[in-house]
Structures are given as C-alpha cells and as structure tokens.
Design goal:
Strand 5 and strand 6 form a beta hairpin. It is elongated and about 130 Å long. The protein has about 450 residues and is an alpha+beta fold. It has a six-stranded antiparallel sheet, with helices on both faces. Strands 8-10-11-13-12 form a five-stranded mixed sheet, with helices on one face. Helix content is about 50%, strand content about 20%. Bound molecules: adenosine-5'-diphosphate. Adenosine-5'-diphosphate binds next to helix 11 and helix 12.
C-alpha cells in the first residue's frame, strides 16, 4: 500500500482536457517529489553514523513537503519502561521539558507505544478525547503518532503535527509511515553495528588474553627445557668421561661382550649429548634477541657449504648453486643455522648407494624472496609435510637415518623469528624441494 500510494503510475488515468491534465501533472510532480524525498531521506539515514541524531534533519526535509510544524521523537527507555523525548521541533522548550518523560499507558504517544499501532487524531481542537488533551494544548489540529518497531521490538515513537488543517491525506500518512520505518531500520542497523563492534572487541580481548596466556606457558616451557637440558649436560659429561677412561684404562682387560657394552654406552651418551645440544640450540633460538640486516643469500649458502664440506666430500655429493641469489632482510647467524639443517638433511636423506645431488636457486614473489633447496633423496609423503617441522618429529628410525628430529623445528622457528616462512614440496621417492621465504632487503 505504501509503495503504490507513492508510485506515480498508481495515480488516476489522465483525462483529456486542459484543466484536469494540469492537475494530473501536478499530482505526478508531487509523487515524483515524494519518491525523491524518500530516497533522499533513506540515503541520509543510511549514511549517517548517528541515525538517532538525524531525525531533526529528516523532519526538516519532509516538513515543507507535507506542511508539518511539529514533531516529537521519543525513545523507549528499557530501565524505566517509559518514553523519553529525544528530539522535537515546533513547541516551546518549557512545554517540551514538561513532556520529557511519558508513561506507556498515559498520553497519546504512550498509548501508541503500548499498543504498537499508529494513531491518527483529526480535528484535534474539536475533540474531547482525553488522550489528545496534551496535543490540544500545543494548538495542533491534526496529529499522527507512529510506533518505531524493528522485529516487533519497540524502539520509540515518532509523531508529526500541523496547526494548519484538520486532517492528513492518505498519501501523506503513507509517506510519514515510510519515513518512520526508515528511521526504525536505520536505528536498528546502528544497534546491530554497535553490538557487533562490542562483540568484536570482546573477541579481540579474549584472543589477546589467550595469546598472552599461551605465550607465558610457552616461555615457561622453554625456560624449563633450557634449564633441564643445561643441567643434564654435567652428569652426561661425567658418564662420557668415565666411559672413555674405562675404555682407555681397562679396555684391554674387557672381553668382547664387555667392550660391546662399553661402546653402546658411549654411543648412547653421544646421542644424548647431541639431543641436548640440539634442544639447547632450539631453546636459544626462541630466547635470543635478533637484529636484522641485509644478508646475501649467496654468501650464506657459500659459508654453509664450506662448513659442510667434509660431509659433502664423504657422500660424494654434488651441490649446484644457481646465482645470482637475492639479498634478504635476516639475522645472519640464524639464517646460517636454518641452511645448515636443510643442506644436511638433503645430504642425509638419500636412498642407500645414491650420491646426493643438491640444486639451490632463488625466486622472487612480490616483496619476498624464496630460496629453494632441491635434492634427489627419498622424498616425503605429502601427509607428513607439516608434521616434520615439529620438535622430535621423525619419519625414520635412528638406525636407518641418524638424527634427533629437531633440525626442521629449528628451521621453522628460525624462519618465524625472522618474519619468514619455510615449507616443502615433495612426494615419496621423488626427491624434495624445501624452501624458505624472507623479505627482500630494501635498496641501501
Ligand atoms: P632429523 O634430520 O634429525 O631426523 P629433522 O627435523 O631435520 O630431523 O627432520 C625431520 C624428518 O623429516 C626427518 O627425520 C625425515 O624423516 C624428514 N626429512 C627432513 N628432510 C628431508 C629430506 N631432505 N628428504 C627426505 N626426508 C626429509
């Protein structure tokens, strides 16, 4: 009904005579104006950050068109279950002050709010209805009050009055009702936005709290690991030292079983020492302060290859580096630590009898540089690609391939601490391509 009353096409058919035609085009004109006005009011409300406060300007927009002089905008106050005057126009301040609070069961607007139905009062000055007594004292002749509702919930009331005529036309009432609906929707939208914002803030606070708790637990865990690892080294040194003394001083007197036990004891102690050293290295990586600088990946790869030279020679490996490699922003010692682990793995995880072949190259991806290390090794099932970057995660027994399961955890932690990432592309039996990613160093 609302739409059709505003729709120019719903006006009566054109009568072919000069006078009615002019009248009709005047009606058409007003209908177009109404549609424009409503569109204007809608966008005004939609764009407003404070729809509560724009009711006054909305009223100014429609007052002229509808010949209105008075409006009263009440908001429902949940705590007191009363209506409270939020803004108004067309009545003296003292009168407005008297009408600031309205009980729901009394007064015109109060009843509209209570029954949640629009009420129109016509020819008010000649009415004896006690509900219009307030309105009469304002000199109003025609008055309408609409409940502002969203999803059946009362937000407030908006009423309009005129002192110039006894009644409103049907299409005028329809237009005012549309404006009221728009105001209610805009206010509801604002409420929803505010509720969402509050929820977001709450969630953000929760995430921060949980992150802080996690960080604290993590820090405690790492401090604990560090001190345990550190303290374990002293008794371990004693075991290794005495095993060595036993071998040197009494080795000749031991039978083969005794010597085998001694060898196993020493190997176990060596392995435990390696494990502790790796754990300490991992812990230090979390605790140390890193400073960043421009680092040449080319130089890092060269340095690390030199350090691993004995292993490279022993394995008969071939290492091919495709230069140039990019300059990155990194902590050089941590980057070396990461590369040592990746290259050592590439040399180690080959099928028996295969000579390792390593290919190293760089690539650019927007602000980041990637370094790739490809090998011709045993490959990794994609199901384990994530898992192997965790502490103590190994896919093989120490007999098949020696190791502690901390190398890739160091890679992952080191890269994260430098603001980078690490990953792998591989399938079982077809070699692996490990990559690390770091920000490209800015031009100096
Ligand atoms: P470690 O080398 O001490 O075993 P890492 O953390 O370095 O521990 O590696 C974890 C596991 O990931 C290895 O045990 C191995 O199963 C797998 N892996 C790592 N690098 C490679 C590689 N280049 N090729 C095949 N498997 C690999």
């Amino acid at each position: 009904m609302r739409t059709s009353s505003l729709n120019p096409s719903s006006e009566p058919p054109t009568v072919v005579s000069p006078r009615p035609k002019r009248r009709h085009s005047g009606n058409d004109q007003r209908a177009v104006e109404r549609v424009d006005l409503l569109a204007d009011v809608a966008s005004h409300l939609l764009l407003s950050d404070k729809p509560q406060e724009v009711v006054a300007s909305v009223f100014r927009k429609i007052a002229h068109h509808l010949g209105l002089e008075v409006y009263l905008y009440y908001l429902f106050d949940d705590a007191s279950q009363c209506l409270r005057l939020s803004s108004y126009s067309g009545l003296p301040t003292a009168m407005a002050a008297e009408r600031e609070w309205l009980a729901l069961h009394k007064t015109f607007c109060g009843l509209v709010a209570k029954n949640q139905k629009r009420v129109v009062a016509e020819d008010v000055q000649h009415s004896e209805d006690p509900a219009t007594a307030h309105v009469r004292t304002l000199g109003i002749t025609a008055y309408v009050c609409f409940p502002l509702l969203t999803n059946g919930r009362l937000i407030g009331t908006l009423s309009f009055g005129t002192r110039r005529r006894a009644r409103f036309k049907h299409e005028e009432l329809a237009m005012m009702e549309t404006v009221c609906n728009q105001v209610a929707v805009a206010i509801e939208r604002k409420h929803t936005e505010e509720a969402l914002q509050e929820l977001n803030q709450l969630l953000e606070r929760r995430v921060q709290e949980r992150t802080a708790q996690l960080q604290e637990t993590n820090d405690q865990m790492e401090a604990f690991t560090y001190s345990i690892s550190h303290d374990l080294r002293a008794p371990l040194r004693a075991i290794r030292g005495f095993a060595q003394a036993l071998a040197e001083d009494y080795g000749a007197t031991l039978d083969s079983t005794g010597r085998d036990y001694l060898d196993r004891m020493s190997a176990g102690a060596d392995r435990l020492d390696q494990l502790i050293q790796d754990l300490l290295q991992y812990s230090r990586l979390s605790r140390s302060r890193l400073t960043f600088e421009r680092v040449s990946l080319e130089e890092s790869v060269r340095r690390v290859s030199q350090q691993l030279d004995t292993d490279i020679q022993a394995a008969g490996a071939k290492v091919e580096v495709k230069t140039p490699l990019p300059l990155v922003l990194a902590h050089s010692p941590t980057l070396d630590q990461v590369l040592i682990n990746l290259l050592a793995n590439a040399l180690k995880f080959v099928a028996p009898g295969t000579k390792p072949q390593l290919r190293i190259w760089g690539s650019l991806d927007g602000p980041n540089a990637r370094l790739w290390i490809a090998d011709n090794g045993i490959g990794i099932d994609p199901a384990h690609h994530q898992r192997i970057f965790g502490v103590f995660e190994r896919l093989h027994s120490a007999e098949a391939y020696p190791g502690t399961g901390i190398g890739l955890a160091i890679v992952s932690k080191g890269m994260a601490r430098m603001g980078g990432r690490a990953g792998v592309e591989s399938t079982l039996g077809a070699g692996s391509r490990f990559w690390i990613e770091l920000p490209v160093a800015p031009q100096s």
